[in-house]
Amino acid sequence: MNLKTALHELHLELGAKMGPFAGYDMPLYYDLGVMKEHLWVRESCGLFDVSHMGQVMIKGAGARELLERLTPSPYKKLGIDRTKYTVLTNEQGGIIDDLMVTKTGEDSFHLVINAGCKDKDIAWIKEHLSDDLEFIYFDDWALLALQGPKAEVALKNALGIDTSDMPYMAMIPAQFEGKDIYVSRLGYTGEDGFEIAVQNDSAANMARKLLAEEAVKPIGLAARDSLRLEMGYCLYGHDIDAETSPIEADLGWVTSKNNEGFIGADVVLKHKSEGTPKKRVGVRLTGKGVAREGAEIRNEADEIVGTLTSGGHSPSLGQSIGQGYVPADMAAPGTKIFVNVRGRNIAAEVAHMPFMPAQTKSMKKKEEAA
């Protein structure tokens, strides 16, 4: 039996097509359909239920040192209430999960972990947790994602929260129904937007207030997937896994010379200095067709050189895109390849990711300054 989030009844009320995802019964799409939901987020503002994600906190002296052991990222210079994307690594240098880490105090960190990885992530963290550290799992909190170019205005209109001066990858405390909530300026769509942590018993009321805004529509997980694919973001268990290092996954930027004592460092840092046999790349079909996860990637000699780990139609670009792994000497953008779909080779090429420009707050500021 699948678990339900605090918004389950609201999804049904809104006519969502529900389906299983990471052990939960989740909305796949609503009345607009996947294509229109996707485009609505790019043009206006969409509300996602991401309460299936895990929210945890590590507190106490040594919390930073623990995170620098569990992930390849440094946190000493990370500002209070600022967030970074990183990965948990195993002894073989593989990725246990990717996650967001927010420094909420000098000795406290808030983590958002993937739904399908919650149990193993929590077990892994606790295995390395010392007795003087406190571990908190927020199992009675929901997480709403408000994403799109009109998100800032919608948030202010609906909840009275002004984020005009709030930078990208930052968190601020706020109030809703007299209770603490936490608003983070980030997301997995490439648009400006927010993730709002709210207690379960207030989640539905908050969602209704946001959906009362003309600019906001409910969006399902299918469009969330196509939106993240256009940005070249990884989906755990598909594009990254326990046998793939951050360097192979083209996530080398999460590693730092200021943190070389993390679990699996011997493998990961060797990959970083010497290179890897394979690399995660973007794939753009130039021939007609749509390629999905599992499709073979072939070279011009019709030899299998890799596999698509994600793939589908891009509503924004009107073409088929994907990502997968190819030999490092074929990873340069523009390299001609084929993707085999039901026995037919479709012309394609290695593509730069993201497939379209990000519109996050930091990207907009760079464009305005240029």
Commentary on this structure:
The chain is α+β, with helices and mostly antiparallel strands and 370 residues long. Among the domains are: 8-50 and 139-230, 2-Layer Sandwich (Gyrase A, domain 2), CATH 3.30.1360; 277-370, Elongation Factor Tu (Ef-tu), domain 3 (Beta Barrel), CATH 2.40.30. 23% of the residues lie in helices and 34% in strands. The chain is built from nine helices and 19 strands. The protein has helices spanning 8-13, 34-43, 63-70, 118-127, 151-159, 200-211, 221-230, 265-274, 361-369, and strands at 17-21, 24-29, 45-49, 54-59, 82-89, 95-105, 108-113, 134-137, 141-147, 171-176, 179-184, 193-199, 216-218, 278-285, 296-298, 304-314, 319-327, 336-341, 344-351. The chain has a six-stranded mixed sheet with strand order 10-11-12-9-3-13, sandwiched between helices. Strands 14-17-16-15-18-19 form a six-stranded antiparallel barrel. Strands 5-6-7-4-8 form a five-stranded antiparallel sheet, covered by helices on one side. β5 (82-89) and β6 (95-105) form a beta hairpin. α2 (34-43) crosses α7. The protein is globular. The termini are far apart. Mean pLDDT is 96; it is low at 366-370.
